[in-house]
Write a structure and sequence with these properties.
Radius of gyration: 16 Å
Order of helices and strands: EEHHHH
Distance between the termini: 28 Å
Oligomer: single chain
CATH class: Mainly Alpha
Number of helices: 4
């Protein structure tokens, strides 16, 4: 179990007993309320990542970082938002479409984090921590897509 705080409540990376990497209890898949995205572990992790990026990026208040800061925060927050939006749809195919958009936002965020590190908007330590969380979310999204495509 890995914990990050970034000034947040501790963030647990794994849910135990009967849950897939994406946080779906397979034995209850058909009875799940499709709109309850907050129960998805991948959404919880994406939300925590978005909050961490928001807090770290907002510490870089120099006017020169304004555009990059805004784009970085938007990309981070859109990951969880797309997971939530897709979860509210009726079919797995529709949900997968939004999960793929969330993956695109993951890659966009990674690019912004690299640039943020390279221009010293964020520290190397914060870059590494955020990237670790980002990679975990992206892996979970790919796993959830594979699961829904079955």
């Amino acid at each position: 179990m890995v914990l990050w705080s970034f000034g947040l409540l501790p963030f647990t990376f794994w849910r135990l007993e009967g849950y897939t990497d994406a946080g779906i209890d397979e034995s209850h898949r058909e009875s799940c309320d499709v709109s309850d995205f907050r129960d998805l572990k991948v959404w919880q992790k994406a939300h925590a990542l978005g909050l961490a990026v928001y807090r770290i990026a907002n510490n870089a208040r120099a006017p020169a970082f304004s555009s990059l800061r805004s784009q970085t925060i938007r990309a981070a927050l859109s990951i969880a938002a797309n997971i939530a939006e897709g979860r509210g749809l009726k079919t797995d195919k529709e949900q997968v479409r939004y999960l793929k958009i969330a993956i695109g936002s993951c890659y966009e965020l990674e690019s912004h984090l690299i640039t943020s590190r390279d221009v010293s908007m964020i520290t190397e330590l914060n870059y590494s921590r955020l990237l670790e969380q980002l990679v975990e979310v992206r892996k979970m999204l790919f796993g959830l897509i594979r699961y829904l495509d079955q």
